[in-house]
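We store chain and fold; thus.
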Amino acid sequence: MSKLGILSGVATSAKTRTDEVHDRLRADILTGLFAPGERLKFTVLCQRYDASAGLTREVLSRLAEQGLVQASPQVGFQVTPISVDDLLDLTRTRMDVESLALRRGVERDDMAWRARLVAAHFTLANTPRRDPADPTTVTPEWDVVHEEFHDVLLAGCGSPRLYAIATALRTSARLYRRWSEAIDSSDAARDPAAEHAAIAQHAIDGDADAAVAALAAHIELTTTLIVASRTES
């Protein structure tokens, strides 16, 4: 193998290793292993993920760009703190940005995108949301296809920059998953299946105004229920 080929292989291996550590730490943050506001110590992270300090710093920097981690001179790296005020601000911004992305997707009238949306919604609608063994728990399978459905909604905008901003905001919103556990234990206050069906159908029909209104209401309702649950607790 040539020297260039060896260097290329090393670079590919390094990139793969960085992606692996990134994906593991990201998942641990989103599942609550590292709580919002918790300091992320290099020694602990290097041991847990069997990674060098340099690689760990690179991963933390990437997560900071995604809004999951913050860096400050006094604290170092920490999981992004959460608050009701931040949630309200995040929600308003998501409603603006995701609505714009969806509107552009609908108005582009891309048949391939609509076909992907039909498929994504069909999969979501036919994936059990609740675990029969524990009806208060949302299944991991539903959680995955739910994220995929919303990703397809945003992907039709035709703008890589707008799509990146919108998906970053959705990722930030997932930090509030633990706050949403109180409302996820029961669907009495909402009908997620009907909400998703309305968004998908309006988008497929080419009704941008109705699709955007349904998506904005879907995002806002989640926040309203979370804030209400925090007030009651």
